[in-house]
Write a structure and sequence with these properties.
Layout: H1 2-20, E1 24-26, H2 29-53, H3 55-60, H4 65-81, E2 84-86, H5 89-110
Antiparallel strand pairs: 1-2
Length: 112
């Protein structure tokens, strides 16, 4: 049940964050919810594989390449869901960092 709470809270915060970032456009809360579900799926399945294959470049950049991986997954989730537009890569990076902070805070507050 806590997974559903985290998912709903993250969806609310993602939807609210799109109002503060001018380069992020979400067409409705349902799209934000689908985006959050898609991003959770991609983070659980695809991200560990990408991190494993990009380990040398991640070590070389002292972990900063993980931001690029997170941004790519945000773009992929937005593409899969539709109804979400990210204007450029800088907004994608900022949006992925905001989502990371939101997810961490939600995990900390809601717990397991």
């Amino acid at each position: 049940m806590s997974f559903l709470k985290k998912l709903l809270l993250n969806s609310i915060f993602v939807f609210v964050a799109s109002y503060f970032l001018k380069g992020i456009h979400i067409n409705g809360f349902f799209n934000a919810l689908l985006f959050t579900v898609a991003l959770a799926f991609l983070n659980g399945i695809i991200k560990p594989i990408l991190v494993l294959f990009s380990l040398p470049i991640t070590v070389l950049t002292l972990g900063l390449f993980l931001i690029v991986i997170n941004t790519g997954l945000v773009y992929l989730a937005a593409y899969l869901v539709g109804g979400i537009q990210i204007e450029n890569f800088i907004y994608g990076i900022v949006f992925s960092l905001i989502i990371s902070v939101i997810t961490t805070l939600t995990d900390w507050v809601v717990g397991d």
